[in-house]
Write a structure and sequence with these properties.
This is NADPH-dependent butanol dehydrogenase. By secondary structure, the protein is α/β, with parallel strands linked by helices. The chain has 15 helices and eight strands. Helices cover about 50% and strands about 10% of the residues. The longest helix has 21 residues.
Amino acid sequence: MARFTLPRDLYHGKGSLEEIKNLKGKKAIVVVGGGSMKRFGFLDRVEAYLKEAGFEVKLFEGVEPDPSVETVMKGAQMMREFEPDWIVAIGGGSPIDAAKAMWAFYEYPDTTFEDLCIPFNFPALRTKAQFCAIPSTSGTATEVTAFSVITDYNKGIKYPLADFNITPDVAIVDPDLAETMPKKLTAHTGMDAITHAMEAYVSTLHCDYTDPLALHAIKMIHNDLIDSYNGDMAARDRMHNAQCLAGMAFSNALLGIVHSMAHKTGAAYSGGHIVHGCANAMYLPKVIKFNSKDAEAAKRYGEIARFIGLEGSTNEELVDALIAEIRSMNKKLDIPTCIKEYEGGIIDEKEFNDKLAAVAELAVGDACTGSNPRAITPAEMEKLLTCCYYDKEVDF
């Protein structure tokens, strides 16, 4: 038996933000990030709509780009004091992910972060509050997924939390919010989304319900991401839908080792974080080559290649064409080819190699590794990460 879970209601299209005033309840806490939602007026609109609906409203502001365990605990404490019956998260993936984790600690104060790190181990939620997610970026799709990524800065590890309980009740996918994204964020979130769809399509848990969502998302992103990056707002609006479809696919089919590697390299180095979407973009061509040694994975990558109009007479040719196309997209999006080139070389080569074995072992143990189509050992993961650092050919 398999399971397919989505939000109870998903409102989409320009102006759909206004739907928030139809929520029913008494108290709502709004979780938001740095300042762009306030700067562009969306936070004020959400607050006004909630008050129009009769809610008492409290704000939790300032969720950082990679939300920390400490931020989650602070938000949960505010929720326990305020006692909301709706949690509304607005912004990029970070405030929505943080709010999902806050939700669990609000309803179950005695649970531990270690408990939640075990995949699909959350307690039953909705004993105190329901959850509404409003994304402003076109990438994470956390508004429709069973996932949250939280960073333990003391350990230098990003933890992907996974449980169908944290799939939001309501998602509002209004492209007006995405039109405010800067170029670099548009590129990184877009490549995050195409990675979601591709990993879902080749996942060992893919099914008839996830395959069409993944394929259509890949085609939409392939058609629209570059134009969106270059300022075409009609393409930007379509990307907001495409990333959501990719999220529906991967939330149910799960992911693979591109994400395992991105999670475990993201916060591992003293030079700075590797932005998640950029990490996915750099690692995806290498992982496709690695996974294509598995015949079924090669066949499915070939199906992706044909679906987006690439040419090849064999699966091997189609896989190579797909890899070349992703690298071409990365180039057009000004994304580096490897970790060594990332942000002008902020990830020190010696530190990378010193930490290689430990990071590789953590990546193999990541929650996303189990659904990757080809099994991988810690030694192979070291080799694969090395290829991603130096842009070497994957030949194993």
